[in-house]
Amino acid sequence: MIYLDNNATTPADPRVVDTMIPFFYENPGNAASRNHPYGWVAEEAVDYAREQIANLIHVDPKEIIFTSGATEADNLAIKGVFEMYSRKGNHIITCTTEHKAVLDACKKVEKMGGEVTYLDVKGDGLIDLDELKAAITDKTVLVSIMYANNETGLIQPMKEIGEICEEKGVLFMSDATQAVGKIDVNPKELGIHLMAFTSHKMYGPKGVGALFVNRKNPRVKVTAQMDGGGHERGMRSGTLNVPGIVGFGKAAEIAMKEMKQDAERLSKLRDKLEQTLLANLEECEVNGNPAHRMPHVSNISFKHVEGEGLMMTFNQNIALSSGSACTSASLEPSYVLVAMGVGDELAHSSLRFSLGRFTKEEDIDYAIEAVTKGVNHMRDLSPIWEMYKEGVDLSSVEWSEH
Ligand SMILES: *Cc1c(COP(=O)(O)O)cnc(C)c1O
After folding, report:
1. What's the pLDDT at 324?
2. Which of 195, 200, 226, 324 has the greatest count of CB atoms below 10 A from its CB?
3. Assigned CATH topology for domain 260-393
4. Residue in 150, 155, 180 to alter for ligand 1 test, most ligand atoms within 8 A of Cβ
């Protein structure tokens, strides 16, 4: 089985798992227990992990709030800012290609009486900075734009967005889940005030994540979304997931040392995969601006081939994602690709390849062969492909409803 779905989740690094194990057995303490050594050991381990994670993103450890993952961190940032800054205004700006954790938190904000502007993206997947500027009003409290997109790997112009927010005096939040631990992310340099990320997309365990909350110039606060013991400076109650946090910390430490070399190796493999597929197969397109992309991601549309069907041709051997999302009733084309103007049909024809630390060159060679074969096979069976090859203008064909 070849795993090319690292944007969905990464396997834990064995070095991470090794550091976690003692915190299930010898050191099972609650980090909030102040009156015995079990508690002290746990607290110390959490403090250490907080430092490892803060170092990775160049912030103060006090600015890290632990959560159960990026979904919770996104919710805490968006709803928490909306509630905390309600006297200043009720308007939030985000964009249409965000992760559902951001979009659905924004929908909830609308139900709570807020107003949300959803910026469109251009054909290359990036937002238009002039549109962002024009959207900011004196009621705007937050701009939330993701760092790197999970489906395409596209990196938004963070520095420019940060400058606009600074100039207009609004808070800037970013879901950086797909970027942290893969490329150098420096929220302070970019003017990001709140930033969500998660352990299980950077070779750590699932169920633990963090929200960076800027503490000085400006001092940012969010309203807690959970009531309880007042952990995490009152912003996130709940007993800390000590083994998870220890693993997250170790994952951050490893990333800090190795992400540069990982990225270099993976970008070469990704380029090999992409270039060979494009050379082997006609009518393929890479989705998104290749100059603004994460090094390990490639999203390709194979014209006149249905992505889910293509995956079936090698389903038993390669794990990856298609540009179709399963809803209860039907297969929907990816809203991210559709927002980029890719079109329903090409969105359904796309595959997302996301490589990771444990991807080997043989895996890529295997994937190239399997995808090439699969696409050719699907096209051989396709009357639409045959018509296309015969030069029929498919847009002029009137399809019957049967
Ligand atoms: C995976 C992902 C999330 C959700 O993270 P969890 O830790 O699984 O809740 C949020 N945003 C982006 C961009 C993601 O890729």
Report:
1. 83
2. 195
3. Aspartate Aminotransferase, domain 1 (3.90.1150)
4. 150
